[in-house]
């Protein structure tokens, strides 16, 4: 369970670092503002997505440990709606790039793979 917390913490730190770089890029490069806006919106949503899913996984682990016979939901509809609302905002607002938003939503999920590999290798040694 500690590995899950450390993975989510590392992904959150990397994502916040990327967000700060994008805010700086938004301020310095005005011609790329729509792309930066889309990436900022997507990264923020992706970070919420990752943290929400990790809380659901923790809840499932606690349910399995307690050995209760109870139904459990991963909140799939909630996560789909979160991404859907983000894409609809990007579609409605002209200053936000749709492509940047979609890419930004997937970056934190993709980051979990190399982060978990690095954390796994560190914990082995």
TrEMBL record:
Pfam family, any one: ATP-synt_I
- Record keywords: Cell membrane, Membrane, Transmembrane, Transmembrane helix
- Where are its TM segments located? 7-29, 35-52, 72-91, 97-121
Tell me the membrane topology, using the record's own terms. Multi-pass membrane protein
UniProt cross-references to InterPro entries, sorted A to Z: ATP_synth_I
Specify where it is mainly localized.
membrane
Q: Where in the cell is it found?
A: Cell membrane
Q: Report the superkingdom from the record.
A: Bacteria
Q: What protein name does the entry list?
A: ATP synthase protein I
* Organism (species): Paenibacillus barengoltzii J12
């Amino acid at each position: 369970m500690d590995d899950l917390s450390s993975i989510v913490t590392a992904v959150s730190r990397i994502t916040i670092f990327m967000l700060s770089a994008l805010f700086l890029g938004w301020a310095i490069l005005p011609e790329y503002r729509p792309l930066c806006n889309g990436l900022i919106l997507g990264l923020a949503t992706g970070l919420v997505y990752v943290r929400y899913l990790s809380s659901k996984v923790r809840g499932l682990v606690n349910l399995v440990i307690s050995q209760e016979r109870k139904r459990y939901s991963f909140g799939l509809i909630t996560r789909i709606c979160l991404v859907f609302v983000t894409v609809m905002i990007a579609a409605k607002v002209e200053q936000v790039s749709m492509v940047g938003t979609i890419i930004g939503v997937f970056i934190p999920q993709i980051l979990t793979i190399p982060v978990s590999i690095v954390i796994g290798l560190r914990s082995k040694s």
